[in-house]
Write a structure and sequence with these properties.
single chain, F420H2_quin_Rdtase, eight-stranded antiparallel beta sheet, alpha+beta, globular, Pnp Oxidase, Chain A, oxidoreductase activity
Length: about 150
C-alpha cells in the first residue's frame, strides 16, 4: 500500500468502553480533554492496519527525548504484542496527535541500547510497565517515533 492510498483522516477507533471515551474526548476538545490522563501525557497514534489497510487510532502514554517520541508496546503484559505495534512493524509511517498538534512520523523499534536507556524514563512516567514486563515472557518493545 502506498502512502497516497491511506485515509489518515478517518481512522477506526477502539470499541465501546473507556478507551473510546478517551479518544472521543481528546478529538472533540483538540487534546484539551485527554492529553493528561491519570497524571501522564497521552497521544493518539494512528497506524495502518496490516491486514485491512485501514487506519486505526489508539490512545497511548508517551515520553519524549529531544525530537523523539517514545512509546511502550506493553499491551498490559499480554503474551502477544499489541495490534498497533504489529501494524507499525509492517507500515512504519504513522500519524499522532499530541495535544492539539498532529504530526507525521516514522516509527521503529528501539535498538537494545535505546531500550536500555529509555526504559527507566518510561517506567518513571508509568511504573506499571515494569509489572507488565515481569508478567510476560516476551520483551516488551519500546518504540521511537521520529519526524
Amino acid at each position: 500500500m502506498h502512502a497516497l492510498d491511506v485515509d489518515w483522516d478517518h481512522p477506526a477507533d477502539p470499541g465501546p468502553g473507556p478507551r473510546l471515551d478517551h479518544v472521543r474526548a481528546y478529538v472533540a476538545s483538540a487534546g484539551v480533554d485527554g492529553h493528561l490522563w491519570h497524571g501522564v501525557r497521552t497521544l493518539l497514534l494512528t497506524t495502518v492496519d496490516r491486514a485491512t489497510g485501514r487506519t486505526v487510532r489508539t490512545p497511548l502514554i508517551y515520553g519524549e527525548d529531544a525530537d523523539r517520541v517514545l512509546l511502550v508496546a506493553s499491551g498490559h503484559g499480554a503474551p502477544e504484542h499489541p495490534r498497533w505495534y504489529r501494524n507499525l512493524t509492517t507500515h512504519p509511517e504513522v500519524r499522532f496527535q499530541a495535544g492539539a498538534a498532529v504530526h507525521k512520523a516514522a516509527a521503529r523499534t528501539a535498538t537494545p541500547q535505546e531500550r536500555d536507556a529509555y526504559w527507566p524514563l518510561m517506567t518513571a512516567l508509568w511504573p506499571p510497565y515494569d509489572d507488565d514486563q515481569a508478567g510476560t515472557d516476551r520483551e516488551i518493545p519500546l518504540v521511537v517515533l521520529e519526524p
